[in-house]
Amino acid sequence: PQPRKGAKPAPSHAAHPAHAPQRHRHRAAAGAGQQPLAVYILIGIGGIAGLVGLYSLFPETRAPSFGQAPEEKGAPALAMPAKKYVAAAPLAPAPEERRALALEGAKVVHPPQKLEHLADTSADVRTRIDNALAKLFDISYPRASTAASQELVQIGKPAIPRVLSAWVDLSMSDDKDAIRANLLDQVLREISGLGSKYRPQGSTPAEVRGRERARDAWFQWWGDVGERFGVAQPKSGG
Question: 1, 68, 74, 189: which has the fewest C-beta neighbours closer than 10 Å?
Answer without folding.
Answer: 1
